[in-house]
Specification:
- This protein is mainly beta.
- It has two helices and 21 strands.
- The protein has an 18-stranded antiparallel beta barrel. Strands 9-10 form a two-stranded antiparallel ribbon.
- Strand 4 and strand 5 form a beta hairpin.
């Protein structure tokens, strides 16, 4: 289990980025749902074929310091994500530094990151964000692994997300604190993992027409526990069950508090090291404390497919459901459904093409509102040297809804920038 501002691997980073592309910036703690085992034979992927901007870093004994800076200029046709479009350009800078261990066993890491956005004309939308995290891994005998991450961050609600209610003069900001632990045992016929996490959101006062707006009714803590068991019937075929329990506790309006669970069961299938797939169905339930408020009850699903037909081409598909906090006093929770696919294509030894497309649906419980968004992006990254890469991207999104005052909009953006690894 890891916080989203901690490193979790390229695949998962892509999923999180796609699900929130141009639209969200909050980090969402989640449990790793994959099995603990690794592939028997490493498979080349497009990222390994193309020369990467992975510098050696600065070594300090058995630790390495890895500074990075991302910079890009963007033009967005709808910065507020509303029907009445306002376009603007924005400069985005994302510096980060990671201190990582280089031990023969076990691991620790410390990470710091920040983001600054400056709009050319709409200075009220300027924002700063930061995050700090630390974590590690202990490798025990007999294939036991204990890992965890803890951190703090300052975030904003991206315009157009379910957390942004589009009435404030500036983006709504909040502080986030959280952490979690996971214990797993892999490498056998039966593999399992169990984890716990906690996440607290404290919202800062917003402003509307220059007047302060109290946001404390949004302050919430989410506690969760998850357990997964995998049974490997053969080297290629397995069965698994995953159960998750959670609790949402609001500081104000405790009648919105709720407890819930999700149980899914399915199959994992590895045809070869080039094709792996997981698919599961189940049920998600969220019960509120107030009997006058409706509960959540729906089919749950989990899907993950990875296909590498050639060393230069890879396709991925991932989908799942989660229960999120409510941004309004009227509601208790939001049922969020996602389905995201992406592709990576290596062209030569220095150019990497990325394609992403996804679907996101939010169902507000407590009042009648549903919003569905489709989005996509195409990027081209060109490695200039071992330390510098340049990229260009084009994206689009479209959201429609039903019920009470759904937010509907269209938008597109183009960006160009560079990534530097010191």
């Amino acid at each position: 289990m890891r916080l989203a501002f901690a490193p979790t691997g390229l695949g998962r980073k892509r999923f999180q980025r796609a699900a929130a592309l141009w639209l969200t910036g909050s980090f969402v703690p989640a449990f790793l749902s994959g099995t603990a085992r690794a592939q028997d034979y490493p498979v080349e992927v497009p990222e390994s074929v193309v020369e990467q901007t992975d510098a050696e870093g600065i070594r300090i004994g058995t630790m390495k310091v890895l500074p990075r800076v991302n910079f890009d200029l963007r033009y967005d046709t709808n910065i507020y994500n509303q029907r009445s479009k306002i376009d603007d350009g924005v400069a985005v800078v994302r510096p980060s530094v990671s201190l990582q261990s280089d031990f023969s066993r076990h691991a620790v890491h410390f990470d710091a990151a920040a983001e600054g956005r400056r709009y050319l004309d709409t200075s009220a939308e300027n924002s700063n964000q930061w995050s700090l995290s630390a974590g590690g891994r202990l490798d025990f005998a007999d294939r036991f692994v204990l890992d965890g991450d803890f951190g703090a961050a300052r975030r904003i609600e991206r315009r157009g997300t379910f957390g942004d209610q589009f009435f404030t003069d500036r983006p709504v900001s909040y502080n986030e604190y959280g952490g979690g632990l996971r214990l797993s045992r892999g490498g056998g016929i039966i593999e399992w993992q169990i984890g716990v996490s906690s996440r607290k959101l404290d919202y800062n006062d917003a402003r509307q027409n220059g007047l302060p707006v109290d946001q404390s009714f949004r302050d919430v803590r989410r506690d969760a526990v998850t357990f997964r068991v995998d049974y490997r019937r053969s080297d290629t075929f397995g069965l698994f069950v995953r159960a998750t329990g959670n609790r949402l506790a609001y500081d104000i309006g405790t009648g919105r508090n709720s407890k819930g669970f999700s149980v899914v069961g399915g199959v994992s299938y590895r045809i070869t090291d080039l094709v792996t797939a997981e698919a599961a169905l189940g049920y998600v339930k969220q019960d509120t404390r107030d009997p006058a408020r409706p509960d959540i009850g729906a089919m749950d699903y989990h899907v993950s497919v990875k296909w590498t037909p050639t060393p230069r081409t890879r396709f991925e598909l991932k989908g799942e459901r989660t229960v999120e906090r409510s941004p309004l006093m009227l509601g208790s929770a939001v049922l969020q459904s996602t389905l995201v696919g992406n592709a990576s294509i290596a062209l030569g030894s220095r150019t990497l093409v990325g394609l992403e497309a996804g679907f996101l649906r939010n169902e507000y419980e407590g009042f009648d509102r549903r919003e569905s968004r489709v989005f996509g992006e195409a990027t081209v990254t060109r490695t200039i040297s071992t330390r510098i890469a340049a990229f260009v991207g084009v994206s689009a999104r479209r959201q429609r809804g039903s019920g009470i005052n759904p937010r509907e909009y269209d938008g597109a953006a183009v960006r160009v920038g560079a990534r530097i690894a010191i």
